[in-house]
Amino acid sequence: MSVAKDLPTPEGVIFPDSDLYKYSDEPPLETYLHLQQMLLLLKCLEWWWRDQQHFNDFFAAGNITIYYSQRQRKSEDFRGPDFFVVLNTQNQTRDSWVVWEEDGKYPNLIIELLSPTTASVDKGLKKQIYQDIFRTPEYFWFDPKNLEFAGFILLGGTYQPIEPNPQGLLWSQQLSLYLGVYESKLRYFTAEGQLIPTPEEFAQQQQQYAEQEKQRAEQQQQKAERLAAKLRELGIDPENL
């Protein structure tokens, strides 16, 4: 990770407020579909890491501004990622990510959600910034509408495509998880290729498991009762066995 250099102030450049962390300049996400996808990425990662040490030392967010230079001007060309994760940092609420107030840390992983109005910037300018300035180790993009999905890993200072496994999943070294498309959504998968559930999906799985266990217990009870009845027919008291 690199730290933004403190260069002399060019004439006419406006310094950002010292309270940048209090707000974000990000515009609303393109569509409700994009919003759902961003929230899904956030929810599932926090859920998966809830009982792990990661939960206490990472920050994940979506659609907030990253300020990476104290000489940075507000720009319509570049604001911030749709989703990013910073590892080895305090897990606390932030409304913006201000690099010089975060020990010079940049995101470890970034995901952009493509749309017709942002795709060219996401694949061009933003990718260049993430590669050359942020030095973000992994960059992914996903289109919630046409399901275009690609990932890149920083090797020798240049993003190289991440090759999919036989199931079409892309491995993230930063998360130690796969990323892939499942039911038209970008989802996380374990190293074994198992889908990481949402909290709601997990609760439903637990309910189904509990119902199956209840049915199994009822079947065992019925079987025991039939056996006891058969023994009584034969003049044998099952209580004395």
What is this structure, in a nutshell?
Helices cover 28% and strands 20% of the residues. It has 241 residues and is of the alpha+beta class. The chain has a 6-stranded mixed beta sheet. The protein has a 3-stranded antiparallel beta sheet with strand order 9-10-11.
Can you count the helices? 4
Biggest sheet, open or closed, and with what strands and sense? Answer: 6 strands, mixed
Biggest β-sheet: strands ordered side by side in the sheet:
1-3-5-6-7-8
Helix content range of the residues, please?
25-40%
Along the chain, the helix and strand elements come as HEEEEEHHEEEEEEH
Number of strands: 11
Distance between the termini: 72 Å
Q: Which class best fits the helix and strand makeup?
A: alpha+beta
Beta-strand residue fraction: 15-25%
Radius of gyration, taken over Cα atoms and rounded to an integer in Å: 26 Å
Identify low-pLDDT runs: 1-22
Chain-averaged pLDDT: 83
Morphology call? elongated
What does this structure look like?
The chain has helices at 32-48, 119-123, 125-134, 199-233, and strands at 58-61, 66-67, 83-87, 97-98, 109-113, 138-142, 149-155, 158-161, 170-172, 177-182, 185-189. It has 241 residues and is an alpha+beta fold. The strands form 3 sheets. The protein has a 6-stranded mixed beta sheet with strand order 1-3-5-6-7-8. A 3-stranded antiparallel beta sheet has the order 9-10-11. It has a two-stranded parallel ribbon with strand order 2-4. The longest helix has 35 residues, at 199-233. It is elongated, with a radius of gyration of 26 Å. It starts with 31 loop residues before the first helix and ends in an 8-residue tail after the last helix.
